Amino acid sequence: MTTFLFPRHLRLTLLSGAALALAACSFDPNGEPPAMPQPAHYGAEAQPTQTVPAQGITQQFVVGAKPVPEWWKLYQSDALNALVDEGLRNSPTLAATDKSLAAAREQLRAQIGSSMLPTIDLGGQATRNRALAIPEAGPNTFLYNIFVGQLQAHYTFDLFGASRLADAALAARVNVQAYQFDAARRALAANIVTAAITSAALHAQIETTERLVTIANDQARDTQRRYALGAVSHADQLSAQQSAASLSASLPGLKQQWLTTRHALAVLLGRTPDAAPDDLDLAQLHVPEQVPVVVPSELLRTRPDIQAADAALKAAAADVGVATAQMLPSLSLSASMGQGGFSWPVALSGAGAIWSIGASLSQPLFHGGALFAQRRAAVDTYDATVSQYKQTVLAAFQNVADTLAALQHDAQALDAANIAARSAQGIFDETSGRYRLGALPIASTRSSEQQFRNAQLDEIRYTSARLTDTAALFQAMGNPPLESGPSATAAVPAVPAANVGVSN
């Protein structure tokens, strides 16, 4: 039996390749998200099962319920539903994000096709050449033609998963864009709802403030006449004038906020600012009575931002595998067949048949430490992505905790403001009745109406806050999870599993 001995440098190369293969299979991250703490409740204080009743409505927190896909319909406003539907259809920003996602999917398909399948090309060549003469053969030059037609094939065997891991990394990044598209779509709906509610509340505040300005101006004019008659002091006259001017000064800023909100809403809908929609009637918006509260463990599957961070983690893990696989041997196979000759008859005859087949094997030996540095960089990037995932989860928990606390406090503040407004209205009604009977002067009626209108302003503000914070909580809950994966990623082609220890 004959024994073959490999040269020392070849043995070292094969041994280093085997060691790196074992290292790749053993030490590459698997891309699974890190375990996160599961708090008993989101906030610093245990959340109640419901809010205090405000304006006759008690909001209930349904713990363990699934998120509501089209939650804005719970406000029971056809006008609001129409605005959201229009924005989701016509928003240029959302359309651009959708097209960017479609482009990313096509790039993934292109990369999978070029990396996992052989390439086959058809080529033809026809040239006329002039060669220098050979002095011993005579002074004439040589003129000749070459005709070649070939079918060429090339394939690189993905021995250690470099191509498949690169495809997996790109597929994960496409998933990141898909989840970001979901998040952008939900954020657009939430922004439209918030802008519509805010615009309606500002409109109501402007109407109430204009009434307050009218009352203050009337009071200032009466005080001016009484001062002229010597019935009040100059200080009383100046004080009434100052109150009326202060109220008038607050009105332009309020109108500016209102117009800015309307312009923003128009752009969210895909309109120009001059085509801003009419304001909704704040009184016609019904605050949803039941609000889902997803448990923390399930929130990791429902929030698009957390899902995007998870996909980014898988992409970073696959990048580590790619950097590892690039240190290992690479095997390529190429073949070609065709016809060729110095004339068309010869090129097309059996004598013109040409073919070739070959294989190449390469193993990186020395790249100045670049390959090891690239792998360390990939590992550091993966570690950073793990930390970013953790921060995304913590920020999501905080977002839910803040909105839950806001809804509780909104209900408390709105209940108090509602009681104050009803009491102030009762005082105003009684004072007006006594004024009509001649028992009280007009100044008393104006004073009681001012108190009522100011209490009404507070109630409008807290009503708006409750409606918008409810929208924020629905937004914070995310999307209902689908067993087959996110709808936005359904069109992403499958990537074959890699044989290096990184899974996707």
Key words describing this protein structure:
disordered N terminus, 4-stranded antiparallel sheet, 59% helix, alpha+beta, Outer membrane efflux proteins (OEP), 10 helices, 504 residues
Overall description:
It is a single chain. With 504 residues, the protein is an alpha+beta fold. The protein has one domain (36-128, 142-489): Up-down Bundle (Outer membrane efflux proteins (OEP)). 59% of the residues lie in helices and 12% in strands. The chain has ten helices and six strands, in the order αβααββααβααβαβαα. A four-stranded antiparallel β-sheet has the order 2-3-5-6. Helix 3 packs antiparallel against helix 4 and helix 9 runs antiparallel to helix 10. The longest helix is centred in the middle third of the chain and has 67 residues, at 162-228. The protein is elongated and about 135 Å long. It starts with 7 loop residues before the first helix and ends in a 27-residue tail after the last helix.
Write the layout of secondary structure elements.
Blueprint: H1 8-27, E1 60-63, H2 78-90, H3 92-116, E2 119-131, E3 142-157, H4 162-228, H5 234-268, E4 290-293, H6 296-302, H7 304-325, E5 330-341, H8 344-348, E6 353-362, H9 370-436, H10 442-477
Parallel strand pairs: 1-4
Antiparallel strand pairs: 2-3, 3-5, 5-6
Helix pairs in contact: 2-4, 3-4, 4-5, 4-7, 4-10, 7-9, 9-10
